[in-house]
Amino acid sequence: MSLLTKEIVLEALGNIMDPDQGKSVVELDMVKGLVVKDGKVAFALEVDAARGQQMEPVRKACEAAVKALPDCSSVTAVLTAHSNSADAPQGGNGQAAPQAPAAVSGVDVFAPGVKQIIAVASGKGGVGKSTLAVNLAYALHAQGKRVGILDADIYGPSLPRMLGSDKLPEVTGSKMNPVAVNGIVAMSIGYLVEEDTAMIWRGPMVMSALEQMLRDVNWGELDILVVDMPPGTGDAQLTMAQRVQLAGAVVVSTPQDIALIDARKGLNMFQKVDVPVLGFVENMSYYICPSCGERAEIFGHGGAETEAKNLGINFLGGVPLDIRIRETSDSGNPITVSDPESPLAQAYMDIASKVIQGLESGDRKAAPKISMS
Ligand SMILES: Nc1ncnc2c1ncn2[C@@H]1O[C@H](COP(=O)(O)OP(=O)(O)OP(=O)(O)O)[C@@H](O)[C@H]1O
Ligand SMILES: [Mg+2]
């Protein structure tokens, strides 16, 4: 049992000075999202984006000061740049990011060893994006791919819970190692900050945190990086889709009409930023009665498939509404890992095959232009 507490960590950090301002990082309120758990420590240092590079020695000094404490087994400190202007996203090295998204090659700039980045998105929250992203990542891995997963949901990270790992990312040199879980690697802001702290992040910080998770993480050589997108089609999502060169997007919806309208908003977003759509997934598509085995289509199954056809988008498959999917993903033991031979896991395997096919054959459709009126 480690006796390390937040107070002890803050006391140690109180000795680390910001050389420019002559005050400690604690006095300047730069330490954010401090987590101390069983001797493992993680926190972010919030700095002005323009001073990113110059603050790296301070970050290292903070890490060393905490590491030297008795009972400390690991420390992860990340620099989180914040920008004063919401319109001018900053590159993490303190240079202004290129304004034209087309000029940015996300794969080269952010994660050189990653061959393809795909996004799992939806227009509306709570339709099962994270559950799909996690199971899809494992299903892709089961089909021989080297896979990573990035939780882009800065406000409500759910990956640490769904992957069931309480390991913290470790630091080698100036980079963080993603957390390895059951053959895939993962990164989430949830590993670095507490959920309620994440809520206070401002818009521009969200993007710089995401960029940092791509650029300053040792993703290594990956075939596919699955990005679990935050819900909605607002600025954060748009910027994310723009800045990270996505090979394709998987759009999730539930069969209800309203969710389909939201899914169309998701498609529109990708159309705006020229990201091809790999296809639609219908989640909570049908229900198999556990006692009689009868298939019940409580929400009017098939909406997404029909809609996909109408819009000229591929249909990647449906996933049933099943308590085992909820229980396994919410308890950190996804069905594709805990029961890979089950028909439920098979549904994800089928979707993964279609995703691979889409990526390899280039059979991705440009997102259609949809009138929302
Ligand atoms: N096919 C399914 N059958 C049963 N439960 C499911 C299924 N898919 C997802 N769920 C459950 O629905 C809830 C919401 O799913 P999830 O967190 O994946 O949604 P989300 O779209 O990522 O949400 P958010 O928009 O908040 O990020 C979770 O409790 C999850 O376990
Ligand atoms: Mg989610």
Helix content range: 25-40%
The CATH H-level homologous superfamily of the largest domain:
P-loop containing nucleotide triphosphate hydrolases
What is the name of the CATH class of the largest domain?
Alpha Beta
Percentage of residues in strands: 15-25%
Query: Helical element count?
Result: 13
Write structural notes for this entry.
With 373 residues, the protein is α/β, with parallel strands linked by helices. The chain has 2 domains: 6-82, 2-Layer Sandwich (GMP Synthetase, Chain A, domain 3), CATH 3.30.300; 103-361, 3-Layer(aba) Sandwich (Rossmann fold), CATH 3.40.50. 34% of the residues lie in helices and 22% in strands. The chain is built from 13 helices and 17 strands. The strands form 5 sheets. Strands 10-11-7-12-6-13-14-17 form an 8-stranded mixed β-sheet, with helices on both faces. Magnesium ion (MG) is lined by residues 129-130, 153, 158, 228.
Chain-wise SSE layout:
Layout: H1 6-13, E1 17-18, E2 23-24, E3 31-37, E4 40-48, H2 56-67, E5 74-82, H3 106-110, E6 114-121, H4 129-142, E7 147-151, H5 159-163, E8 171-172, E9 175-176, E10 179-181, E11 184-188, H6 195-198, H7 203-215, E12 222-228, H8 235-243, E13 248-253, H9 257-272, E14 277-283, E15 287-288, E16 295-296, H10 303-311, E17 315-319, H11 323-330, H12 335-338, H13 343-361
The structure holds adenosine-5'-triphosphate and magnesium ion (MG).
Adenosine-5'-triphosphate binds at residues 122, 125-131, 153, 156, 158, 231, 283-284, 319, 321-322, 325-326, 329-330.
Structure characteristics:
373 residues, GMP Synthetase, Chain A, domain 3, Rossmann fold, 8-stranded mixed beta sheet, 13 helices, binds magnesium ion
